[in-house]
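Extended Data, panel c. Modelled sequence:
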Amino acid sequence: MFIPDKDQIKGLNNLIDDSVGYWDDVQGQNLKYARNQSERMVIGKQIDTSKLYRYQIPFVDNEIHIAVDTIISYVTAQTPRPEAYPSEDTDKGRVLSSAVEKALMAYCEKYDVSQEFEKALYGLLVKRVGILKLYYCNECDEIHTKAIDPNWVIVDKNAKMGENPGFICELHKCTLLDLVLMFPEKKTKIFELMKIKQGTQNQMTTEVVWREVWATVYDRGKKQEVCFSYIKDLMLGKYKSPNWLYSGNDGSTKNYLPEQFKPYVPLNYLNDGSHWIDQTTPIEQAYSMQDVLNKRGRQIMENADTANGFLAVSSEAVDMDDAENLIGDPNQKIVLKTSGRPIDEFIMQVEPHMLPSFVVEDKQDLRTTLHNLMGTPSQLSGTNQEGDDTDTLGQAIMIKNQASGRQDRLARAVTLMAKRYFNMLVQMMQVHYTDKHKFVYNGGDGDFQYVTITRYLIDSGMEVGVRAGSTLPFDKSRQEAVAMNLAKMGMISPLDLYKDLHMDNPQARYDNWFKWKTQPELLAQDAENQEQDGQAYMEFVEIMNGKKDVRPYEEATPEHVLTHRKQMITDQFLKAGASKQKAMLDLIGAELRSLELRTELEQLSAPPMGAQAAPQPPGMGAPMGAPGQPPGSPPTGPMPGAPMGPPQGNPMGGGGAPIPFAHNMSSIMGSSGPGSPMPQPSNPANPMQMPPI
């Protein structure tokens, strides 16, 4: 049945107005007032200055702000970690679920979803509900996540916690120009509605509010999610939910979720299940204590301002005009008309009134009670309040653990929201990721993996959950203590120990430990080779960027030259101009000549064959002789370490083997015959000649 747009808008407005009246009823939820009060408390606007005298200072000890900041920092310390469970116990199921899990984690890192979770938690603590929204952007072909201000969302009054509301209305404020750009086909009607003819700059920058209403309707007896966008009585657009695969869209895929949904994810905490929005918040429960705390602080401050007492002067000695000029300056002079009478009859310093001790104690007790109510004692918030230094370390840890337990319920609420969010995200990926989407997944320790996700990799039978407690801060000190105890018992590998101790580059540390245990000399060579590689890449980049005066590295090693060889078989070198290729070959030739000369000089300075080692001091033991000789007898062959003829080691091998001067450039850079990865020069007899371009 066809329903005119104006009638649909009228029906939606009636539902929205009815719900607004229910939520803002003073005798009922009183939602608008509660949200305004909570916002004022958090930002510090807690004092009505109109009720203070002129001399009074609006003292605010904003412990509510500290508590809210502590809760958000603790509960959302880490990004929620999704877990994808395969639909079947097969290699295929495990591979697909692992790919989806990594894609979800990479998506959260790329688009900083943790920040949106923090905003949603702030909305829960201050405005009784946190709301995340997912939407697809056609221009960038990507799904976006956004935390919505609950003040701009109106929910069906009959919706219960965890249910799909009958409608959700989101208010949008934008300029008239933005509205026209979003709905260009409605430009003429928008101008008519706003009584605009040409659209001047002032008119187009006027702010307007339009409504985006997601409602559940029935189409031929079946539930259907529909979105209505309108301003006043003008329908800007209406369409079925774009986050669902309908029959005929793609027969090869199925929807991940069992039923349609509105793209909003709620976060609830203090709720008995009767409403979509919570009944109260911890901030609302701390209103009265925060007010009294401010009052006690103002009393102490005003009493401190009178610590010097005040001056009382008789009107017989000083005129009223002169008395008003007494400002308490220690160097100020006072002239009194005493008429021969004692001066203390005309002027005196009145002693200050001391506050009773229970006033200060009451202020401290109020602060402690407020934080106990919100589950944020000083041991959790990090504040150093009076009396905290009397606690021992064990007592402080026990109090902190107890406070952490108070936040477990809130952490479970965030985990539940994260589970709903990730399931909606997977559904939207299945609908909108028709092409491949690539993400970079950080597996830790520099293990970056490129993950590709598309709708065909999502198994409809797969389940997505969230690891419990994954948003809470990690107890590093406890893990480190356990790791050290396991190390003492020999029940942990060095690599796992480095990881549990949160050291930088644990894999590199383990590799160095292994080399130190097996071949200690390789550690020094690795450090030198790393420096050589860095220098080689600097030279290559400078030449490829056209720098003319790149000087050869005087301390080049065979590893340095090998790095250049790897660079010369890259596309960047092969596609470079002839001048750059020649400059690179000239640089390598100069470094090779320097390397050969230094190698020849080292060989000339080597000890002659058969040279005897210096005798061992007594008590140090004699060298082992040849087989059949008694221990301690002089060896008949060459001494260990003396060269046996020409060196036979691989010139490019490790271990620091010297390179004979007879090895020329081709022996190090590789043959230029068939099958060589090096570019083929036009003249095989001259390896320094450039290959034809």
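Confidence is low (pLDDT under 50) at residues 616-693. This feature is highlighted in the accompanying rendering.
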